[in-house]
Amino acid sequence: MVVLLRNCQLNNQVESYMDIPKLEILGSNPPEAEIGNHILLVAQASYHLGELIPLQEELQRRGLQSMLVAPSIPKKILQRLRPSFARREELRRKFSVKEYSLYKESLFKTVKGVVVMNDWGTTRSTIDWADSNGIPTFGWVEGAQDFFDADTGRIRSPYRKAEHIFCIGPYDFNALKGCNRTLVGSTRLRNISATRLPSDAELKVIVNLNFTYGVNSNARQSWIKGVNKAVKQSGQDLTISRHVAEPSLRLPWVKQSDPIESLFSQASYFVTRFSTLCYEALLRGVPMIYHNPHNERAKNFLNPMGAYPITTNDYELYEALKERPLERLTIRKQADEFLNNHLHLISETSPAELAADVICSKTSF
Questions:
Q1: Cα gap 29→44, rounded to integer Å
Q2: Phi/psi at 52 (nearest 5 deg)?
Q3: Which of 123, 152, 143, 293 shows the shortest CA–CA distance to 211?
Q4: Whole-structure pTM over 0.85, yes or no?
Q5: In angstroms, what CA-CA distances link 11 with 4, 14, 151, 231, 301?
Q6: In the chain, where do the E strands start and end?
Q7: Residue 52 and residue 57: Cα distance in Å, rounded?
Q8: Average pLDDT for consecutive 10-residue bins of the chain (365 residues)?
């Protein structure tokens, strides 16, 4: 539901119209009387909390109030079939409250800045509202991103709508040349480290099934069937990690799996297409294979810099899986050049502190 405040003129004072986005509060909901000037932190998926909660804590240390919110779940049944709905349901489960409080319309008058994890789709109305009211907007790159829509089949122009962008590494900093941007890194990814496998680990090939949001979805069935064939020929066991928004009716034989974090602890290899999980696997030292028989054109993972092999058909994948995987600490070291090209991993100042510095410089309380 969108509320429209009409353009009106009273006593020579003009009030501009605005579309008020519908949001719900995540976590604690303080009394309205205790909510003063604040920053809106907009999450759309549970992993966004890995950036937004440390940022909220850092803003609080500086005496700045912020509120963690999410776009409200749509009431229309057809809208609930969209991948974004599954993501927001997952986000809701992260909080123990049974009922979610709507962010009241009256609170918008004290918003001094808006932080989003992407600036298209369900956050667009919030950004448009902020823009129409002269409120600064900040977009934090959420992970691996097809910045030029090479494979999306849409014109999203990611991270070109928010006024200032927080980049997670040199790769996206360079891709967003011409935008107002700051290299801050990712708290969530920086906290991931490589550890040795337990000696009693039951190893298996972990496969990332993620053809969501309409990206290369016509390749879904052939991709997963080819991977299944190659893994079986290599004599290894296979577990499929299905993206939370992956439509189960398309492949009913693919069951829901354990969280990917626990699956990584059992992985002999990780087979994937374009995904932020590529970064997570390499940071953990998991041997990764980028399987691209469907010819993805986004350049993010097409130059592995020695970090992982790229396979383009089932036989190449089978050949790669036959090789004995390297030790995890070796994989992590081998991936240094690639990871440092894509992620800002080392600095004395945390990503949350760097982001808060920019927010404080662009907002007035």
A1: 18
A2: -75, -35
A3: 152
A4: yes
A5: 21, 8, 53, 74, 59
A6: 3-5, 8-10, 13-15, 18-20, 23-25, 38-42, 65-71, 111-116, 137-140, 164-167, 181-183, 204-209, 238-242, 267-272, 288-291, 310-311
A7: 9
A8: 31 46 87 92 94 98 96 66 64 71 92 96 93 97 96 92 98 97 98 82 89 74 94 94 62 63 93 97 97 97 98 98 94 97 96 98 92
